[in-house]
Each structure stands twice: as structure tokens, then as C-alpha cells.
């Protein structure tokens, strides 16, 4: 009895069907996974921030900033400037606050 | 059971960003996906591996679009099918040649790996769509409905590709002495 066409093709494909060994394929795929780079990027960024903040504190950066603000606020020039331009300053603060609020709302949407 | 396991692994990747779970999925499906590409490219192993890698990376980046309406393997085959036809389209666009010439190019490129093997010689006589349907049906044991899901063809079209492909293949096999008595 001769094989039908279907049996002939089925047997033919079956005789050639074999599993392919991984041979490092999955490792190559996992190396190219985008999240992996992203995760390392996040870790490096976090470590960099910690180093920067530590250096800033250790080298007296906070004292410098506080000192500078005190100097500005207590100087006569700054006092005159603030008092002379109070409406403009209020308008500037209002526009700045409005812009920040608008951005927060639009990002949440 | 296998399907439940796949869903659990997908959930682990999506919820806990567990890359080891995805690695398990890659290890599980690398063989059928690479075999699918080997058949489509009539034995070009380097190209097959490149396309298979692209398939798994696309699967990873689009994992949240896996809605569990089909098996994970069917979903993966669909991505593989799209990756292959995107490749064919880009190749056609760059070379501006027709489909039969693309096939001819494959055939000359494959000499080191596939040309000596009867399986790749035999499927060279098939058109791309017939090759896809025939290899998914006979090699990967996918049902006609699943092949329709993978390729996006209506089931009637899958049946006619299978029928034409079977006709050509059986003729090739008979002409090459594969027809034996039981």
C-alpha cells in the first residue's frame, strides 16, 4: 500500500524535525534586552547623585549657599530692589506659579 | 499546564520585571522560533538567528500587549512572521527585485548550510506563503486556525496555500525517490 501525499509529507518533515541547541542564543538575547541597560542606567545615575551630594556636603557647599543668601537678603541694594519693584516681583511670582501648576496638571492628564 | 506556566512567566516579567522569567521563555521557545526562521530562509542560520533575536526583543518590549487570547507560542509565531515579512519587504525595497529573485538570492546565499539538506531543497519549490503554511502545519504542528492567527490569512486561504504546497511537495518528493511502500 502506497503512502498518501499527506503521510508522505508528514513523514518527511518528521524525519527532519529536531530541536536546535541553545548554544548561547538566549544569552545573546538577554544581553540585548532594553530594560537591562535601563536598570544599569538608573543605578549609575543614583550612585552619581549620592557621590555629588556627599562631596557637596563634605566640601561645605551648604554653608556657602546659606551665607550667600544671607548676604543678598541683608544687603541694602537688595532691600531697595525688592521694595522698589514689589508689583513686578509679585507679577513674576504669579506667572511662575501659574506656569508650574499648568505643567503639573497637563502632565497628569 | 504549559500555557499556565507561560502566563505565569509573562506575569512575572510584567509585574516584577523579572528578567529570569523571560530568559526561561527564551530558552523554551528558541528552538521552534529558530527552526521557523531556518525554514523560511531555507537554511540561512546567521540570518535566522538575527531574526529570532529580533523576535524575542520585540516580544519583550511588547509583552504587555499579550492579551492571553491565544497561546503564548502562537503570539510569538505571529511576531516572528511579522519580523520575517518586514525583513522581506525591506530587502525588496532596497534591492527592488521581485519575490522570485529574493528566493533565488536566498538559495545562492545558503550553500554553506542549507543547500545540501533535502528539507531546504524541497521547500525551495514553494512560494513564501506556501512555505510558511506548510512548515507551520507539518513541522510545528500548528492547526489551520492557529496558522490563520499567525499569518492573518483567512482559514480558506491557509487551506488553499496548504493544498498547493502539498501538491508541489509531494511531486518533488516522488520525483526524488521519497515515495516508499509501507
Characterization of the model:
The complex is a heterodimer of chains A (109) and B (182). Chain A folds into two domains: 1-63, no CATH class; 75-109. Chain A is built from six helices and no strands. Chain A has 109 residues and is an all-alpha fold. Chain B has 182 residues and is mainly alpha-helical. Chain B has a single domain (2-175), classed as RNA polymerase sigma factor, region 2, helix turn helix motif (Rna Polymerase Sigma Factor, Chain: A, Orthogonal Bundle). In chain B, 75% of the residues lie in helices and 0% in strands. Chain B has helices at residues 2-16, 19-40, 45-61, 72-95, 99-109, 118-123, 128-139, 144-151, 155-175. In chain B, helix 2 (19-40) crosses helix 3 and helix 3 (45-61) packs across helix 4. Chain B is globular. Chain B starts with a helix and ends in a 7-residue tail after the last helix. The model of chain B is unreliable at 107-116 (pLDDT under 50). Chain A binds chain B through residues 1-3, 5-6, 8-10, 12-14, 16-17, 19-20, 22, 25-26, 28-30, 32-36, 39, and chain B through 17, 19, 22-23, 26-27, 30-31, 34-35, 38, 49, 52-53, 56-57, 60-61, 117-119, 122, 134-135, 138-139, 166-167, 169-170, 173-174, 178-182.
Amino acid at each position: 500500500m502506497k503512502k498518501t501525499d499527506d503521510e508522505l509529507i508528514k513523514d518527511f518533515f518528521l524525519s527532519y524535525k529536531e530541536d536546535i541547541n541553545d548554544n548561547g542564543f538566549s544569552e545573546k538575547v538577554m544581553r540585548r534586552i532594553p530594560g537591562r541597560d535601563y536598570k544599569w542606567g538608573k543605578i549609575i545615575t543614583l550612585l552619581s547623585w549620592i557621590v555629588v551630594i556627599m562631596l557637596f556636603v563634605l566640601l561645605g557647599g551648604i554653608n556657602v549657599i546659606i551665607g550667600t543668601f544671607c548676604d543678598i537678603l541683608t544687603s541694602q541694594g537688595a532691600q531697595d530692589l525688592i521694595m522698589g519693584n514689589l508689583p513686578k516681583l509679585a507679577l513674576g511670582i504669579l506667572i511662575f506659579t501659574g506656569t508650574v501648576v499648568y505643567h503639573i496638571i497637563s502632565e497628569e492628564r | 499546564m504549559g500555557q499556565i506556566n507561560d502566563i505565569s512567566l509573562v506575569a512575572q516579567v510584567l509585574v516584577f520585571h523579572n528578567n529570569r522569567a523571560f530568559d526561561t521563555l527564551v530558552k523554551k521557545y528558541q528552538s521552534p522560533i529558530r527552526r521557523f526562521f531556518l525554514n523560511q530562509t531555507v537554511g540561512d542560520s546567521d540570518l535566522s538567528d538575527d531574526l529570532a533575536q529580533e523576535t524575542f526583543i520585540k516580544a519583550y518590549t511588547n509583552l504587555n500587549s499579550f492579551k492571553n487570547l491565544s497561546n503564548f507560542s502562537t503570539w510569538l509565531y505571529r511576531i516572528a512572521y511579522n519580523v520575517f515579512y518586514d525583513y522581506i519587504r525591506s530587502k525588496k525595497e532596497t534591492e527592488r527585485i521581485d519575490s522570485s529573485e529574493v528566493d533565488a538570492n536566498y538559495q545562492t546565499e545558503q550553500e554553506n548550510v542549507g543547500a545540501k539538506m533535502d528539507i531546504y531543497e524541497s521547500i525551495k519549490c514553494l512560494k513564501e506563503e506556501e512555505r510558511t503554511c506548510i512548515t507551520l502545519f507539518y513541522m510545528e504542528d500548528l492547526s489551520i486556525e492557529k496558522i490563520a492567527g499567525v499569518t492573518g490569512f483567512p482559514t480558506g486561504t491557509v487551506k488553499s496555500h496548504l493544498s498547493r504546497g502539498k501538491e508541489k511537495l509531494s511531486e518533488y518528493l516522488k520525483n526524488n525517490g521519497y515515495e516508499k511502500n509501507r
